[in-house]
Amino acid sequence: MPLKQSLFAYAALSIFAGSAYAQSGLTVYGVVDVGYINAKTNGSGNNADTQASTNVIGNSAEQTSRLGFKGNEDFGNGMVAFFTAETDLQPSNASLSTWQSRQAFAGIGKAGIGQLAFGTQYTPIFNQLSASDVGNTNNMPGSAVYPVYSAGSSTAGGAFSDNAGVGGISNALTVRTQSTLSLQTANLAGFKISGIYTLRNDTLSQNKSGTLAVSNNYTGWGLSTDYTWKRLYVGLAYQSLKSNNLGQGTCTATQIGAGNTNCSSTAFSPTPRGWTTASGGVNTQDNQYYGALTYDFELLKIYFQYVNRKAINTIDSNYFASRTAQQIGVRLFFTSSIESWANIGNGKHTNYGNNAISSGFSAWQLGLNYYFSKRTNLYAIYGSETEAANAVNSNTAANGFALGVRTLF
Question: Which domain holds residue 346?
Answer without folding.
Answer: 35-408
